[in-house]
Amino acid sequence: MTMGLNTKPATTRRCALEDRDGRVLMTGLVDAIDLDGLVYFRLGTDCLIMLEAAPGQFEVGSWLDLDLDAASVVAYL
Fold first, then answer.
1. N or C: which terminal CB in the chain sees fewer CB atoms within 10 Å?
2. pLDDT tens-digit readout, 10-61
3. 33 beta partners
4. How far apart are CA 14 and CA 56, in angstroms?
5. Which candidate, 68, 50, 76, places its Cα nearest to that of 8?
6. Closest Cα to residue 25, out of 35, 34, 16?
7. pTM as predicted
8. Mean pLDDT value of segment 6-13
């Protein structure tokens, strides 16, 4: 995830996940960040996902909107 490319500050503070026209749209909260830039992104009280990001781009507590190509999203359950 890269600010300005596929990520921007959220316009709302409400978690969301949507598939629209081959895009995955997410709104969530940055819950934690590892030293290597791995972002723990909260999509709900019981849903936390990990996203790769360059170190120093994001801050814990930030609400973000993500717009990703569905083909680039990989889920491991």
1. C
2. 999 999 999 999 999 999 999 999 988 899 999 999 999 999 988 888 999 9
3. 39
4. 24
5. 68
6. 16
7. 0.87
8. 95
